[in-house]
Design a protein that fits this description.
homodimer; 30% strand; 23% helix; alpha+beta; 6 helices; 234 residues
């Protein structure tokens, strides 16, 4: 709705900068980061597929819900492959959700104030309905596992995937997920958090550098897979 | 001992190629690849330091025998950080070394025939004397641990370090160590073996490609460590 024009000013004054002309109504979005459970596999599967599309690597995507279920959740969190889920909701999260009260990791609950509401066209696909009828939406995930530095003689975490759905980007949610992993690494006395980035993904590189990471230009990833790997079997 | 000169031939014949003029005595060197045990930590520590020197990265080397002991060997082999040790000996290995008979990994025993004996100036530092007085020498190691591909929904192995001492190089021992990891990956139904290489180490890149690995040129390693990591603690 257009505002009525103000009466003419007695003397011309310069127009304020554009951002000051806006007087946004904040839309508060509540966020929770928690450990994934086996019931999250359908969401994890869809998120991995969206990531493969974004990375133009769908020809390498062969994961199924069944293969994810059989390979994740076989070890206690942080000792092997571990997934954090990012949930968003227009309503506050109950801090003391009993099924999420884990001694190893207390869910991180926060909120952001946005100028505009988030339009989520896939909300039905990523909706979780609680026992009390509350609705939350899966917005992203991070999958990581321990690695080891022989120079430090310390474990660290390697982040295999960090993904936030398109409509939730540029709100700090990716930073929240990666920060949660870094915080857990510090808590456990670990020495490093590492991951890889595609060299053409300049936005991601800028984002990681702003978070304090160094991009190591000299190292190249080597991969032995498929028939070349199978040749080493008996 | 020089052979007596043969009687002059009735007609001159061309000299055979140089390699055919040599008639080397083969020096058989026996090799064993086995899982490391906590008693190998002093060797592992020295090997990691030699690797740091080779990679010109001694400023990053802070490992001690104590820190290695407290972070390795806390989980069953292959479920977390795992070390294979390469041993060499002028004498055959006893296949049925009772203390090495592990259900998860049977030591790999083989031999190579060399034209010249290996001159190991550091043999005293890397000597293991068996209960029967037999002497073997630690020649190298590989440290690896499980990683995970979300696209395959399968675990793999990530090789953090592969190192063969200078005097044992160019005899196929590095290939034996990496092959042992690849073979174990196939045995466990894993999808990939991955590692990183410095882009200036052209010999290593050639070696890895000959083993069937692909060098992925597009990916860059990101690392969050030191104060930048600690900042994520509370």
């Amino acid at each position: 709705m257009a505002a009525a024009a103000p009466p003419p000013a007695p003397t011309p004054t310069p127009a304020p900068p554009v951002e000051h002309q806006l007087n946004p109504t904040p839309y508060t979005t509540f966020v929770r980061i928690r450990l994934a459970t086996p019931s999250d596999v359908p969401f994890i599967h869809k998120l991995i597929h969206q990531m493969a599309v974004f990375e133009k690597l769908t020809h390498l995507f062969t994961a199924t819900q069944e293969s994810l279920s059989s390979t994740l959740f076989n070890s206690p969190p942080f000792t092997s492959f571990t997934v954090f889920i990012l949930e968003v909701s227009p309503n506050p999260f109950l801090i003391a959700a009993p099924h999420l009260t884990q001694t190893l990791f207390s869910p991180i609950v926060t909120h952001v104030n946005l100028d505009l509401p988030i339009e989520d066209d896939d909300s039905e696909e990523f909706k979780i309905v609680g026992a009390d009828g509350s609705e939350v939406y899966v917005g992203g995930f991070v999958l990581f596992f321990p690695n080891y530095s022989t120079f430090l003689a310390k474990p660290g975490f390697y982040v295999e995937d960090l993904f936030v759905r398109e409509c939730y980007r540029r709100r700090g949610f990716g930073k929240m997920l990666l920060s949660a992993v870094a915080k857990q690494a510090v808590k456990m006395g670990y020495g490093r958090v590492e991951w890889v980035v595609l060299d053409w993904n300049v936005n991601a590189i800028k984002f990681y550098e702003e978070m304090g990471a160094k991009v190591l230009q000299e190292w190249r990833l080597c991969r032995l897979t498929g028939d070349a790997l199978q040749a080493y079997g008996d």
